[in-house]
Each structure stands twice: as structure tokens, then as C-alpha cells.
Specification:
The complex is a heterodimer of chains A (90) and B (185). The mean pLDDT of chain A is 88. In chain A, 79% of the residues lie in helices and 0% in strands. With 90 residues, chain A is mainly alpha-helical. With 185 residues, chain B is mainly α. In chain B, 65% of the residues lie in helices and 0% in strands. Chain B is elongated. The mean pLDDT of chain B is 86. Classes of the chains: A mainly alpha (90), B mainly alpha (185). Chains A and B meet through α2, α4 and α5 of A and α1, α2, α5, α6 and α8 of B.
Chain lengths: 90, 185
């Protein structure tokens, strides 16, 4: 089987390229291979879509958490500031 | 020039730093320790603060390095994943010829719609699925997709080869997606 045929029928390689593409630029050859694969494979088209959405959702989850109501308890904070004041005196 | 004000650090930044840490390491005790260590380390570095970034950004950078240390310690206890091992594990998603195995092939599970509203329940499942990833994968995934660190930096800090980096990135997403599909449908 030629290299091209291999990728056209290979979902493992296609999903790898989908992930690679989300981070770095694909080579010209990889771009062509992925495009041909996605044209013929509805599973990987769906994976491609979901993969991007998942990245967005994870980013959102992390961003929201720092603006949220996660709080340290007041006793801990009081002790912590006291510790800092002590260090400052040294 | 921005000045540091350690007398006000806890009131101004402790909750923020704690939330930052807990999202990334998911251990309350350890997250508290990291916040404390961050302030103490910061005190020793006060002189080297150049005032180029805000106080919070500067403190967060110190915390971030401490979190990477935790990631590294967590993952160094494990046997490094060789390419072959990761490839073998991949067998459950793909058959030998590289096709999706029927039971693992992607299905729509309700996030594909543009208007999809992220609910609390979904966030909960997303968190659970992230926690299921091996520590090293979670570290690689968040450093890349959340902190957007350069690939070279991640490889150097977590001591993974470039080849393994790509295997982990691929593998982490396959698992995360499969976990969401399984638990959200």
C-alpha cells in the first residue's frame, strides 16, 4: 500500500494529525493527507469537531475557576499573613 | 514601576492563587501548602522583582513553577511511557489497520451544537475525566492547551522526549473524549 493510501484509511494517524494541528503547523503533505481523510471519514470529522470543543471547554473550566468562589478559610489566611509579617521582620 | 506590598499579599492574592493551584493539582492540602510556599519563596525574591509585571502575575509565575515541580515528582514515580507501550494501549481505540473500533468510534453526545450550554453537571464530568488521566498526561495537556507553553519548554521541564510528547497529546485527547462520550450520553 502506498503511503498516501495508508493515511486515507487510517483513523489513528488522522486523529494524531488533528491533535498535532491544534498545536503546530502541519507539513504540506500532512495537510493534504488529513484533508483527504476527513473528506471520506465521518467519524474523524466528528472527532475533529469534538476535539476543538473539548479544548475550549477545558480552557473555560480553568479560567472560570480562578474567578470563582473557591476560597481559603480565614484562619489559614490569618496565620499565613502573620507568618509573612514575621519573615519581613527578620 | 510597580511596588510589592507583602503586607497585603494574603488579602489580595491568596484566594486567587489557591483556586489556580487546586484546579491544576486537585489536592486541597497540597494546594494550601503551595500557596504558602509561593509567598515564602516570593519574600526571598523581593529584591529581584523588576516591576515589569503585576504583583499577581509575578506571584502566579512562582506558583506555576512549583506546580510543575509537583507534576514532575508525580510523574517521575511512574515508569516512563515508551512509544511502544502507548501504541499498544492505543489498540483499544483502533483496530490493527488503523480504523476506529466500532464500540469506540466517535458519536455525537450533545456538545457539538454551537449553542450548547455548559452546565454544572457537565463541568463536573469534565473534571472527573481530566482527573482520570495519568498525572504526566494531565500535566502535558494543561501546560500545552491551558498555559500555552512552548513544546520545548514542556518537554524540558517534564523530561519527556519530543516523540513522547506527541504520543501523550494524542492519547490524552482520545481518552478524554472517550470518557466524556461514555459519561455524558
Amino acid at each position: 500500500m502506498s503511503q498516501l493510501k495508508k493515511i486515507i484509511y487510517n483513523c489513528k494517524q488522522a486523529t494524531f494529525l488533528i491533535e498535532k494541528k491544534s498545536i503546530t503547523r502541519l507539513t504540506f503533505r500532512e495537510t493534504v493527507e488529513l484533508r483527504i481523510h476527513l473528506y471520506g471519514c465521518s467519524f474523524c470529522r466528528l472527532f475533529n469537531k469534538q476535539s476543538k470543543i473539548i479544548n475550549d471547554m477545558v480552557s473555560e473550566l480553568f479560567r472560570n475557576s480562578t474567578g470563582s468562589n473557591i476560597r481559603l478559610d480565614d484562619d489559614f489566611k490569618k496565620e499565613l499573613q502573620e507568618r509573612i509579617e514575621e519573615e519581613l521582620k527578620k | 514601576m510597580i511596588n510589592l506590598d507583602p503586607h497585603n499579599w494574603v488579602a489580595a492574592h491568596a484566594d486567587y492563587l489557591y483556586a489556580y493551584a487546586i484546579t491544576r493539582i486537585n489536592d486541597e492540602e497540597q494546594a494550601r501548602d503551595l500557596v504558602q510556599d509561593t509567598f515564602l519563596a516570593a519574600l526571598e525574591k523581593v529584591k529581584s522583582f523588576e516591576g515589569k509585571s503585576s504583583e499577581r502575575t509575578w506571584l502566579t509565575a512562582i506558583l506555576r513553577n512549583k506546580i510543575v515541580d509537583v507534576y514532575r515528582k508525580k510523574s517521575s514515580g511512574l515508569k516512563p511511557v515508551t512509544i511502544n507501550e502507548a501504541e499498544e494501549q492505543q489498540a483499544d481505540f483502533f483496530s490493527e489497520d488503523g480504523h476506529w473500533v466500532t464500540e469506540h468510534s466517535p458519536k455525537e453526545f450533545g456538545i457539538e451544537d454551537k449553542d450548547h450550554l455548559v452546565s454544572r453537571e457537565f463541568d463536573h464530568i469534565l473534571k472527573k475525566c481530566l482527573q482520570k488521566l495519568p498525572a504526566l498526561w494531565m500535566a502535558v495537556f494543561t501546560m500545552k492547551h491551558i498555559e500555552e507553553e512552548p513544546t520545548d519548554t514542556i518537554c524540558a521541564e517534564l523530561k519527556v522526549t519530543a516523540a513522547n510528547f506527541w504520543v501523550i497529546i494524542h492519547r490524552a485527547k482520545l481518552n478524554l473524549r472517550a470518557c466524556l462520550q461514555k459519561n455524558w450520553i
